[in-house]
Q: What sequence folds into this?
């Protein structure tokens, strides 16, 4: 995400940060001035990637980095994988995703517990 890209560019100012836009558009005022390159994923957000990486990840989010990693990564590069799939079929999980990504007016976190 742009937030993680901005944080990493502050922590590692001499590193070249490459971002992958998966869902929300990353605008210039966010972090583009601090990043070397922006790749834009053309797969719809809710669609799972058909090119999954060899580690646990969110198939509709972080997995979409893998196509760009395979093409552009060099020895010594690092990848920031935000999360892995929890239970994507869980109704409350889907409500959270919808609320955060698509500004659904439902509350996002109010009743989610670790047991879910």
A:
């Amino acid at each position: 995400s742009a937030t993680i890209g901005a944080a990493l560019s502050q922590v590692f100012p001499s590193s070249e940060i490459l971002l992958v836009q998966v869902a929300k558009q990353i605008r210039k005022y966010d972090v583009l001035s601090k990043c070397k390159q922006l790749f834009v994923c053309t797969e719809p957000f809710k669609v799972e990637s058909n090119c999954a990486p060899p580690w646990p990840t969110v198939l509709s989010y972080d997995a979409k980095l893998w196509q760009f990693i395979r093409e552009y990564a060099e020895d010594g590069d690092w990848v920031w994988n935000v999360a892995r799939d929890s239970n994507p079929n869980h109704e409350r999980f889907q409500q959270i995703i919808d609320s955060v990504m698509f500004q659904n007016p439902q509350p996002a976190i109010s009743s989610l517990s670790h047991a879910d």
Remarks:
- The chain has a mean pLDDT of 75.
- Helices lie at 2-11, 66-72, 91-102.
